[in-house]
Amino acid sequence: MKSQHSLNTEFGTDYKGAIQAWKKFENAPKSLEKTLNLIHQVEVLLGPVVYVHVLDSQQYIGIKFSERHKVISVWIHQNFVDHAVDLVGSLPLADKENVWRTQLTTSFSPSSKVNKPAEVNMVVCPKCGLQYNRNLPQCQDCS
Ligand SMILES: [Zn+2]
Q1: How high is the pLDDT of residue 107?
Q2: What is the pTM of this model?
């Protein structure tokens, strides 16, 4: 069920097969587990996976959910997953409307052990991927 296109490789609804072919989670079982869990959460909200592709650049895997949502709603990257729905533990992106990010690796998340309520006021910097307070004009790590 795999067909070649100029921009991506399609996997039908087989997101597990796509992730396997993509290989970036081969040595990251926790990232894989977190991603599969996240896909399931989005399926509950938007409906079952209907389309999966891996970019030929290998940059990310794109997933569409249900016939009602004809656009990509989940973008799986090596260190994070972006999604078009607000999920527990995710942060809104500073440079995109209605896109949230879940970090797969804990390196960018010093607050992972302590659940700070202030997290709701944080956004993810599009340049460096670190989080900063949305009330600030820009990321302090980059400025
Ligand atoms: Zn930054």
Answers
A1: 56
A2: 0.70
Q: Tens digits of per-residue pLDDT, 82-102?
A: 999 999 989 999 999 999 999
Radius of gyration, alpha carbons of the chain: 16
Residues 6+ apart with CB under 8 A from 123: 91, 92, 93, 94, 131, 132, 133, 134
61, 53 contact by CB (below 8 A): yes
Half-sphere exposure of 74 (CA within 13 A, CB side): 32
50 CA to centre of ligand 1 in angstroms: 35
Ligand 1 ion: nearby residues, β-carbon < 5 Å:
125, 127-128, 139, 141-142
